[in-house]
Amino acid sequence: VKCRPQVWAQCWEGAGACLCAWRACLGLAAAMPIMLVLWVLVLQKLKREMEALRSSSRGLLQSYREEYRDCLSEIVQAVQTAQLHCEALLACSAEAGRLEQSLRDVTERWQRELRERRRLQDALVELKGNIRVHCRIRPLLPFDDEAQEPVSPDSSVSGGVVHAVDDETVLVECNRPGHALINKTYTFERVYGPAESQRAVFEDVCPLLTSFLDGYNVCIMAYGQTGSGKSFTMLGPHCQEEPALPSEPRGDTGIIPRAAAELFRLISEDPSRSPEVGVSVVEIYNNDIFDLLANDGCRAASGAKRQVLPTQQGKTVVCGSVRSAAQFLMLVGRGLKLRAKQPTSVHAESSRSHLVITVTLATATSPPWSDRSASAEPCQPGPRSPATGRRQSPPVPLRTRGHGLGRAAQDRLGQVRATLQLVDLAGSECAGVSGVTGPALRETSCINRSLAALSDVLGALAEGRGHIPYRNSRLTHLLQDALGGDAKLQVIVCVSPGQRHVVETLQSLGFGARARQVERGHPAPRKLR
Ligand SMILES: Nc1ncnc2c1ncn2[C@@H]1O[C@H](COP(=O)(O)OP(=O)(O)OP(=O)(O)O)[C@@H](O)[C@H]1O
Hints:
CATH architecture of the largest domain: 3-Layer(aba) Sandwich
Distance between the termini: 155 Å
Transmembrane segments: 21-43
Order of helices and strands: HEEEEEHHEHHEEHEEHEEEEEEHHHHEH
Bound molecules: adenosine-5'-triphosphate
Pfam family, one: Kinesin
GO cellular component, one term: microtubule
Helix content: 40-55%
Protein name: Kinesin-like protein
Oligomer: single chain
Family: Belongs to the TRAFAC class myosin-kinesin ATPase superfamily. Kinesin family.
């Protein structure tokens, strides 16, 4: 009873709360259908979306299946093509094998032919004799005085007193007032008239290069009086410049540039040999030997040449290693710039020294004719050139053989060396006629003495004397192996057709005739030919 008002208040609150709950229940009951409707609507929407998704995934699946089928058919096609290609490849490789075999057969046949050609060429050279003398008559030129009406170089008639009667005969016919009548003929292996081209001259010399590559030592020299065309024959016109390769427009290049081109062409034909080619250029001036390639960097610029003096190893000269005809000619051109020249009564650009270009061929592998198998030990590199920074070939002794053998000698390294000497002799001249004095007279008398020594050596060889005076001059000493050994020696006697040179012409032709009389032993037969 005491707490009655509070109880009533609490009951009242409870009743309020129940009312509120009742009201909420009523609200909920009223909202339930709406919620149900909404729930149904949501469910329907979800169902529709799921349907749409299902149908789209079915489409996607379908398209993936189609793509997969396409890919599969493409793969099958690719595999089939690859199979076809494989078959074609197999057919190709079989064809390549057949071609390779036939290439091997052809190469073998070609090498056999090459060996046979070399054998025939050597036989031909040997048949022609180890010393061959050709004679070349140059055309009359303005400086001959007699050429009032200059004779065309294309004319077969020399217009002077020297005539090529045929391919082998020269006729000298001269009737000068107050002199005995001259009517002499000389026979040589080949006579070139004034119209004959440089090419014709080279073609007869060319087989010697094959012999050289086969390992024979070869010497080609031009002999004749001043102005008779020796330098023209050996080097070509403008012979003081670097000689041009024959492929260049000028067709009148001489033997040396043509030989350089031919030599490297022949070397490239047989890459299995790959010999090392060295070039040295020396001149004999006033009976002293000068190395025209000596190059110590500072002196080369001023164009100094070095006298070749005896050293502990003997006389040595610089031997430049070359890999192409162009490099070869560059070295020759460098040497030519230093060669002694002096105007003479005959022409303005007279060479006053004997030029000797020596080409050395060294091969590490034994060529077919070699008796001993050579070792493959490489050549020791030479010193570095201060001018070019490149390695030079080691200096080589001036006389590269010294055995009197016609074929190359094997050195201590097992290398086989053959040498080709290309010699442009200084012109013989009659001092009285040319009216020279002073140093020029000394030059002339040195030239004449060395040429006389050359003639003496040939005379002694022709007569088969026991003592051959090689040491009478530097020239004969240097050329000893070419003259007395069994190197293949080719002498080209150059003559001027002019009447005023008839005495020297007769002397040159006499020299050629004497050279022809020299008989030397044939090279020993080769073992492995
Ligand atoms: N066959 C030729 N055809 C045309 N010109 C030539 C012929 N031979 C020589 N000559 C010319 O004659 C001149 C003298 O020739 P070259 O210099 O070759 O004579 P050389 O015998 O070498 O004389 P040297 O001994 O004095 O040096 C040169 O101008 C050269 O071009």
